[in-house]
Design a protein that fits this description.
Helices cover about 50% and strands about 15% of the residues. It is of the alpha/beta class. Bound molecules: 1,4-dihydronicotinamide adenine dinucleotide and 6-O-phosphono-beta-D-fructofuranose. It catalyses: D-mannitol 1-phosphate + NAD(+) = beta-D-fructose 6-phosphate + NADH + H(+).
Length: about 400
């Protein structure tokens, strides 16, 4: 069985690669980094270490790699694969769509494939595989689209494992947290396929995806943005500040109420889940940089992502949003100099004004009560943290009259 995985980065090597290899797949990484590609081709294995007290480690075998630029080789690999996965970042899916489209065309041009192809975008977000499908189909001839519909599926999935940014002498080595969860909806799968060992196949993905996105991702980035204001550089430092940890917990109690309302979770069980996630953030066996967890603030502040979506949904249901508003507003201060989105965010606040950014980028209309609450909170934070660049300070809270 053959798998093609786009992105030999942290989650690719630290999570998807081991899961597929452990299920008997030969895993071909499609990457951009020449050294990693060469090492994967020659060694055909690499070490994974668990960030637990004992630093347990294991080898991931039966792997190889192709350079993304070798388009014909990539297409051939996809044509012969049972599964294609990605972990390149949701914004980069459009950039790999044409490579996947060429592979699909090659696959469908030869004799009828004997097995279906599943294409899974293992990215943080709602509907990532379907988003990838739309980009891929834009590059496919209509005749191929009809045939692809019969033998190729793009089920949305949920993946969860914290893999921090890291550097080792061995460019393939990777340190990952022990926890991991990969959920796939059976309804999205087609034909005969071999289960991936360790994956939880479920009837409905939404409760799992929303629980993870609005707890792990919302909580983690809240810790990053609150921590950034305090001047911390790692999530571990931030989470060891009891006041900050309590605020993150506050955010997760708000998303928790929303999740309980939407999906009928048992409150006590959900609180246990929250506590487990808070412990994961605090894992003392590695350092996770605030710059990574807070990266790409415009994406994280988008209307359909981990901060604004639960805040708007909670508000609409009459649920509390105080901590979520604080987290959203703190994100508006993220000014990390090496993060192009943070720089674009600050430029936008400077050039178009805070109110327009909240309306335009976050999708919260000027008339919406959360809009004025965010602006009021922004001005409060400017006064509490005078060292921050307050590009939107002084914005007027909109009058609702
Ligand atoms: N690191 C983590 O803890 C987790 C990450 N994720 C998701 O997995 C995805 C990848 O994240 P990481 O592995 O942390 O990032 P990463 O930066 O370590 O890896 C991304 C890989 O994709 C490649 N890539 C980026 N843009 C590309 C493009 N335009 N064309 C081809 N390749 C491209 C990069 O070269 C890199 O090898 C993201 O969507 C992230 O949200 C999901 C769960 C956990
Ligand atoms: O990869 P993104 O979406 O930028 O966000 C980082 C997130 O990924 C994770 O590593 C795993 O979901 C979380 O730790 C963190 O919230």
């Amino acid at each position: 069985m053959r798998a093609v995985h786009f992105g030999a980065g942290n989650i690719g090597r630290g999570f998807i690669g081991p899961m597929l290899s452990g299920s008997g797949y030969e895993v071909c990484f499609v990457g951009r980094n020449k050294r990693k590609i060469q090492e994967l081709q020659t060694r055909r294995q690499y070490p994974v270490t668990l960030a637990n007290e004992d630093r347990d480690s294991f080898m991931v075998d039966n792997v190889t790699a192709i350079n993304l630029k070798d388009t014909q080789e990539v297409a051939e690999a996809i044509a012969g694969a049972e599964i294609v996965t990605t972990a390149v970042g949701i914004s980069a899916l459009k950039d790999i769509a044409s490579s996947i489209a060429r592979g699909i065309e090659l696959r469908l041009s030869s004799k009828e494939p004997s097995h279906p192809l599943h294409i899974l975008a293992c990215e943080n977000g709602i509907g990532s595989s379907q988003q990838l499908k739309r980009s891929v189909y834009r590059q496919l001839e209509p005749a191929f689209q009809e045939r692809a519909d019969r033998s190729i599926a793009f089920p949305n999935v949920m993946v969860d494992r914290i893999v921090p940014v890291q550097k080792h002498t061995d460019p393939l080595a990777i340190l990952v947290e022990p926890f991991s969860e990969w959920v796939i909806p059976r309804s999205g799968m087609i034909g005969n396929y071999t289960d991936i060992k360790g994956v939880r196949y479920v009837d409905s993905l939404d409760p799992y995806l929303e629980r993870k996105l609005f707890t792990v991702n919302t909580g983690h980035c809240s810790a990053a943005y609150f921590g950034y204001l305090e001047g911390y550089s790692t999530i571990q430092e931030a989470m060891s500040d009891p006041l900050l940890k309590a605020r993150v917990h506050g955010v997760l109690q708000e998303t928790g109420k929303l999740l309980i309302e939407r999906h009928g979770f048992e409150p006590a069980v959900h609180e246990q889940y929250i506590q487990k996630m808070l412990n994961r953030f605090s894992n003392p066996n590695f350092k996770d940089q605030i710059s990574r967890v807070g990266r790409s603030p415009l994406r994280k502040l988008a209307p359909g992502d981990r901060l604004v979506l639960p805040a708007m949904q909670a508000y609409a249901l009459g649920l509390p949003t105080r901590h979520l508003v604080a987290a959203i507003t703190s994100a508006l201060f993220f000014d990390h100099r090496n993060d192009p989105e943070a720089q674009r965010l600050q430029d936008a606040i400077r050039c178009t004004g805070l109110g327009n950014v909240v309306a335009g980028e976050l999708g919260i209309p000027v008339q919406h009560p959360l809009h004025s609450r965010i602006i009021a909170e922004y001005n409060t934070i400017c006064m509490q943290y005078p060292h921050m660049a307050c590009n939107g300070f002084g914005s007027v809270v909109q009058s609702l009259s």
